[in-house]
Amino acid sequence: MKQPGVGIALTGSGSAVPAVSLNNDQLSQVVETSDEWIASRTGIRSRRLASSTESLAGLAAQAGERAIAMAGLSAIDIDLIVLATSTPDDLFGTACLVQAELGATRAVAFDITAACSGFVFGLVTAAQFIRAGAYQNVLLIGADILSRWVDWSDRRTCVLFGDGAGAVVIQANECDRLLGFELRSDGTQNKYLNLAYQPQEKELTDQVAIGEGTFHPITMNGQEVYRFAVRRVPEVIEKALFRAEITTRDIDWLLLHQANQRILDAVADRLKIPPEKVISNLANYGNTSAASIPLALDEALRQGKIKPGDTLVTSGFGAGLTWGAAVFQWGR
């Protein structure tokens, strides 16, 4: 349901990353690898890593505060906070901690989990609340601290991930700047990328036993995830463009989840989008999961690359497996 005359506009962005970085040469002291091996296969040169005293809520609040400032609002103006994350500080939810840290006392706050697709799924979710007339000013945050759940002895995965947060403010607007979207999921391929709970049996009585344990480090079938991404991401982008009634020729920027430079290049090539229109910052941050799209967006905005009125197509893809795309214009 969409209220007549109610659309959405993205009006502010912000990001935050931990202070500490770990480059490929330093990582080669932890696990058998090299800068050449990592960079040639992924495009990643460095990543930011949160310390034991840094929290997801803290990074998310920093990014959110900057997005609110860019939008010209204050925290009290925010009606809804949607936090996309797979690595919460609290499994019961971290969005309320962000709400408290920001002082956004009027805001409803909740988490969503769609892994590396989280920001795109969150964007579509936030848009529906605004289009229905429920809320006017939404803060959408994508944030993850994946270093908590990496096996630092597994060079296939530990070289990929970094920590960070990115945010956007989405506001009700007479002209709808979300032009089209498409979301997909396929649980039959869930086994290819996991951060899984692995219980051990614990007897409570002679007749009753429960599963007790914790989550185990990230596991990934890199070849299958790559095949999935280069096949499904161009398809879902084309569907979103069709819904928006535009073509790739009308796109100013391609903003993909920053997973692997090879994936970015392959998707752009299949869509015939030139390299100069592809936003990429994964060399400095690695794969930051739900944070990667808003982190790259904020950086490109603050560098003056993205201008008001520019048309972007964005796509997230990852664990679930989930994938989705959205077409939007920046600003009102």
Please, could you describe this protein's structure?
The protein is globular, with a radius of gyration of 19 Å. The strands form 5 sheets. A 5-stranded mixed β-sheet has the order 1-7-6-4-5, with helices on both faces. Strands 8-15-14-13 form a 4-stranded mixed β-sheet, with helices on both faces. Strands 2-3 form a two-stranded antiparallel sheet. α3 crosses α4 and α7 runs parallel beside α8. The mean pLDDT is 96. The protein folds into 2 domains: 170 residues, Peroxisomal Thiolase, Chain A, domain 1 (3-Layer(aba) Sandwich), CATH 3.40.47.10; 120 residues, 3-Layer(aba) Sandwich (Peroxisomal Thiolase, Chain A, domain 1), CATH 3.40.47. It is built from 10 helices and 15 strands. With 332 residues, the chain is an alpha+beta fold. 31% of the residues lie in helices and 28% in strands.
Fold blueprint:
Layout: E1 7-16, E2 21-23, H1 24-27, H2 35-42, E3 46-48, H3 56-70, E4 80-84, H4 95-102, E5 108-112, H5 118-131, E6 137-145, H6 155-158, E7 163-173, E8 178-185, E9 193-194, E10 197-203, E11 209-215, E12 219-220, H7 222-244, E13 253-256, H8 261-271, H9 282-285, H10 292-302, E14 311-318, E15 322-329
Parallel strand pairs: 4-5, 4-6, 13-14
Antiparallel strand pairs: 1-7, 2-3, 6-7, 8-15, 9-12, 10-11, 14-15
Helix pairs in contact: 3-4, 7-8
